[in-house]
Specification:
The complex is a heterodimer of chains A (115) and B (413).
Chain A: E1 2-9, H1 11-15, H2 19-39, E2 42-47, E3 55-60, E4 63-68, E5 77-85, H3 89-98, H4 100-104, E6 106-111
Antiparallel strand pairs in A: 1-5, 1-6, 2-5, 3-4
Chain B: H1 2-28, H2 31-52, H3 58-77, H4 84-96, H5 106-113, H6 120-130, H7 136-142, H8 147-163, H9 173-195, H10 208-222, H11 227-241, H12 266-280, H13 287-299, H14 301-304, H15 309-323, H16 326-340, H17 342-353, H18 362-375, H19 378-391, H20 395-411
Classes of the chains: A alpha+beta (115), B mainly alpha (413).
Chain lengths: 115, 413
């Protein structure tokens, strides 16, 4: 079964970090991704560009409404994701807990519909 | 014959419901589907057993019937991928024919109901429904919610178990430490829902306190090596031993301190002591063992005719340190007052008062009122009793508090 790990964190706090610390975070993510690949759970994953680059689209009355900014303005923003293959929720939660993002923000675990 | 069939269905339902649900669900992950299949199977059994007599093994008969219906449903909903599940079920059915007894998956089901991914408010209701077979309306009234809201919560939880694939397994040692407390809390809440309710008749024939005790016994049978499991069972047994002593012959409330120990059920107390001793030998103390030990100290009054307050104080110190619970801190203050007098008890209570949870908690105000009364501050004691009375649901306890408050003026104590 596939699970999506959605990583939320405080973007501005993230961006204002000193370079050295930033490098540590990147290193942690790299190690995490490698561990997932070795365990055979990794399907995909990537960081997202800052939420300032986000645009939302919705169709209202047959017309496309395009708005600048992310869907929800909250203290924490979606900053990246992983798609993993895991036998059950406990395994997916264990991987989510190891994600560096879980220490800085939160990781939402969502089962993916099998189509 | 007609009566016999009904009685046999009823008995099997009571004894085996959770076992059958657990068995079906452990394989499919589909709680709602298993419930539907089992209720169909019970309906079929009623008709078939009337006509053909009661089968030799009613549990196995029902399991076979429920399994067939469950397989049909899974198939009907099935995509190609899901077809693997009914095939596995069918294969098992063939091998299960040789099995004399049905494997017990209830422990795994308890861990599913109290999984950290399940909303804490729905864990106990989920257990009541899946393991004990209570219907949504009965559960809703036990938890003072509307049947519609309760059934919606239950439906959502079952959809999550299936959709997110919460695994049916018993967590192993390192993980068990985190996963067991929610199971214990959920079972204690079943007991508590019945214990707190003076009528405690969820249905005509079932009381929640008795079902909570049954679950605690079941858990102890399934996890006999876990000291906190034994601690929970001991705690529930101690409370149960005093059930009838809580009311006098005229139906008035009797607080623990005024209860006549001869009204306590000594068999239950002895059983509780045995479990508590067994738990303490394992050398891993926990919340339920401490609470049971406090009850044990109270119960010792039946032999010594005195309450061992210093021991109770010490146990509450541990409990407060371990849990940070304001309820434990309130009870600790009462023990302090018994040894050092009401003034020290009151200052211990003042330390808890800052916790926002205590302002709506009846026992806090009742304890405060009693200590103020003993300290001679009648006006403040009466005000505290008014708070306690306003927060109390049980009319019997309310009139007890009213009497205590009125007694203050009479005696000027």
């Amino acid at each position: 079964m596939q699970y999506m790990l959605l990583i939320y964190g405080n973007e501005s706090a993230m961006q204002s970090r000193p370079k050295e610390e930033m490098g540590q975070v990147m290193g942690a993510y790299q190690a995490y991704t490698e561990a997932m690949q070795q365990a055979g759970v990794f399907k995909e994953g990537a960081p997202l560009q800052p939420s300032a680059t986000a645009t939302t689209v919705r169709i209202a009355d047959g017309k496309a409404q395009v708005l600048d900014g992310p869907y929800a303005e909250t203290k924490e923003q979606l900053g990246g994701y992983y798609l993993i293959e895991a036998p059950d929720l406990d395994t997916a939660l264990a991987w989510a807990g190891r994600c560096p993002g879980a220490s800085h923000g939160v990781v939402e675990v969502r089962p993916v519909w099998a189509m | 014959m007609l009566r016999d069939a009904e009685a046999a269905v009823e008995t099997t339902l009571r004894r085996s419901y959770g076992k059958l649900i657990a068995f079906l669900t452990a394989r499919s992950g589909d709680v709602a589907g298993a419930e539907d299949a089992l209720s169909d199977a019970f309906a079929t059994a009623l008709v078939a057993w009337r006509a053909q007599g009661i089968p030799e093994n009613p549990e196995a008969w029902l399991l076979t019937a429920a399994r067939r219906k469950h397989i049909d449903t899974v198939r009907r909903q099935g995509t190609t991928k899901a077809a693997a599940a009914p095939l596995a079920l069918l294969a098992e059915e063939r091998s299960a024919a040789d099995e004399p007894s049905i494997p017990d998956n209830r422990l795994a089901l308890m861990f599913v109901c109290a999984h950290p991914a399940i909303d804490p408010a729905v864990r106990t209701p989920l257990m009541l429904q899946t393991i004990l077979g209570f219907d949504g309306a009965t559960i809703a009234s036990a938890f003072l919610t509307s049947p519609a809201a309760m059934s919606q919560r239950l439906v959502r939880a079952k959809a999550k178990i299936r959709g997110a694939r919460i695994p049916f397994r018993v967590p192993e040692t390192p993980e068990l430490g985190d996963r067991l407390p929610p199971v214990l809390n959920a079972i204690y809440a079943v007991f508590g829902a019945g214990w707190g309710d003076p009528a405690d008749a969820a249905t005509d024939s079932r009381s929640l306190a008795a079902e909570g005790l049954w679950l605690a016994r079941l858990l102890a049978a399934l996890l006999p090596e876990e000291p906190e499991v034994l601690g929970l069972l001991a705690l529930v047994l101690f409370a149960e031993s005093r059930r009838t002593a809580r009311r006098d012959t005229e139906g008035r409330y009797v607080p623990l301190a005024d209860q006549d120990p001869t009204g306590w059920d000594t068999a239950l107390i002895d059983e509780a002591e045995t479990h508590l001793l067994c738990a303490s030998r394992k050398g891993r103390v926990g919340r339920f063992q401490l609470e049971a030990a406090i009850q044990s100290a109270h119960a010792a009054r039946r032999r010594t005719e005195r309450v061992d307050w210093p021991a109770i104080w010490q146990l509450y110190d541990h409990l407060v340190a371990l849990t940070g619970s304001p309820v434990a801190a309130i009870n600790r203050a009462v023990a302090v007052a018994e040894i050092r007098g009401p003034a020290e008890g009151l200052s211990a209570l003042d330390a808890v008062a800052a916790d926002p949870r205590v302002s709506g908690y009846q026992p806090y105000w009742a304890a405060r009122a009693a200590l103020l009364g003993r300290a001679g501050d009648v006006a403040a004691a009466q005000a505290a009793y008014r708070h306690a009375i306003a927060l109390e649901i049980d009319p019997v306890v309310r009139s007890f508090l009213q009497q205590r408050s009125a007694g203050l003026t009479e005696t000027g104590l």
